[in-house]
Amino acid sequence: MYAVIFDMDGVIFDTENLGRYAWRQAAPFFGIDNIDEVYSKIIGTKYERGLEILRENFGADFPAEDFRKKAGTFVREVLETKIPIKPFVPELLTFLKENGIKTALASSTKYEIVLRELKQEGLIDYFDVIIGGDLVTRSKPEPDIFLKAINDLGQKAENCFIVEDSYNGIRAAYAAGAKPVMVPDIVQPDEEMKAKCHKIFANLGEVMEYLGNELALP
């Protein structure tokens, strides 16, 4: 039996673009003008690794936590009403559930935040396993979070499709021995991604069509 594992930000929720917007809004307060390049490096990583990347790019004494708190104020202004959902999410999750395909959500975001956001948008019951970044030791691109998801699903890695949008996520899925499926969001696939991906699709609607054919689902 096969299973499908999803990243959350940039795959289920359209929050990568929101995050980039928030970082752009916060950047002038800290005298930064090249924030997009740095933001692309933190996509798919845990919060702590994001702080390290900020300091690696802007100096060891850069107030990374203050910067992320400032960016967070801009994010919350948007999320107070509704978290934007990526196209075809309800259709794909319903399709998998109706056909008995086990699913997991494996996000670098903290577990309690993952639960809260899934509940808020009525998506939590679609997932058999939910894992936050604080439940594993190493962040993507290390495979820890996906190895845990595979284990908790009771599956073999080679029977798991992992849907990701980021380079770090695809690297982690590949390292886990699973089938990485990329649906690009902010960052488009380069030659490394093309080599590591099992498949690349423009949206989740294409993923649903592919899985239906690949798994011979009605």
How are the SSEs ordered, and which strands pair?
Layout: E1 3-6, H1 16-26, H2 35-42, H3 47-58, H4 64-79, H5 89-98, E2 102-106, H6 111-120, E3 129-131, H7 144-153, E4 160-164, H8 167-175, E5 179-182, H9 191-196, E6 199-200, H10 204-214
Parallel strand pairs: 1-2, 1-4, 2-3, 4-5, 5-6
Helix pairs in contact: 1-2, 1-4, 5-10
Short description:
The chain has 218 residues and is an alpha/beta fold. The protein is 47% helix and 11% strand.
In words, what does this structure look like?
The structure is a single chain. The protein has 218 residues and is α/β, with parallel strands linked by helices. The chain has two domains: 3-14 and 85-214, 3-Layer(aba) Sandwich (Rossmann fold), CATH 3.40.50; 16-79. Helices cover 47% and strands 11% of the residues. The protein contains ten helices and six strands. The chain has a six-stranded parallel sheet with strand order 3-2-1-4-5-6, with helices on both faces. Strand 5 (179-182), helix 9 (191-196) and strand 6 form a beta-alpha-beta unit. The two termini are 16 Å apart.
Helical content stands at 40-55%
Total number of domains: 2
Question: Biggest sheet, open or closed, and with what strands and sense?
Answer: 6 strands, parallel
**CATH third-level topology of the largest domain:** Rossmann fold
* CATH top level label of the largest domain: Alpha Beta
Task: Give the class from helix and strand content and strand pairing.
Answer: alpha/beta
Specify the number of helices.
Answer: 10
Assign an overall shape: globular
Unreliable residue runs: none
What strand order characterises the main sheet?
3-2-1-4-5-6
